[in-house]
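Contributing new complexes? Match this layout with S-adenosylmethionine.
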Amino acid sequence: MSMSPSLNQTVIPAMTVQPSDSRPPAPASPDIAQARLKGMRGKRGVVGDSLHWLGVRLGIAYNGSFYYPSEDRSILECLIFPYYQLSREHQRIVFVGTAWYTHGYTRMFSRKIYTTVDPNPANAAYGAEQHIVDVVGNLERHIAPGSVDTIFLNGVVGWGLNARDEAETAFAACYRCLRKGGHFLIGWNDLPEHRPFRIEEVESLGKFQRLVFPPLAASEYLIDNEWRHTFSFFCK
Ligand SMILES: C[S@@+](CC[C@H](N)C(=O)[O-])C[C@H]1O[C@@H](n2cnc3c(N)ncnc32)[C@H](O)[C@@H]1O
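Output block (do not edit by hand):
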């Protein structure tokens, strides 16, 4: 029987397919383990820390299938990431800042050239095979100028990248590593304790143009939850 699509079907040609022998091994269990670790904020003690590390180890064992259950994370993982997963123009992806709940992103971007960056060596466990232990401001020491299609800088400003001069260096390094037309996403919390400066005050960001991100039809998108997480989209 013919498998040709009918006239009103949209056919999306397959992207580059890896040879079967180079595919990553299947996870040990077909079940997706989900950790609904609620109320993380401000509830860490000795017991909390032990549970946290137990969760981390299980996450690694289950191929990074733990996730952080918040609305902003759902928008990142279910709406923003798929756009890049399916885009032919975005093959080289850099994700800055790794944590237990970002380990699964390696699998999400397994059909891309996916690199992660974090200065804390302990966080390499949640990163890509191509993981860089360094601050994002030193990106050019590891990545060729003009070679990257997309950089995600989510949850880093106000979470370690707290000094404006460090942000100047970091945004400038991202600009140089991106190719012309490359995308730069900054995810930040619009809360006094995680907003050490306004990103628009950082001069090196002025080299970028604002990008209206098609799936959200916005260049800035605030999720009005307890984190007031905001996605700001830029283009080189
Ligand atoms: C809240 S955590 C996880 C952020 C993760 N990208 C996300 O989507 O939530 C912040 C991470 O940023 C890393 N970080 C802090 N300052 C950094 C810098 N200057 N360059 C790169 N990573 C940095 C920290 O080590 C930490 O792992």
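Reviewers usually confirm one structural detail per submission. For this one: Helices lie at 46-61, 71-86, 105-108, 164-177.
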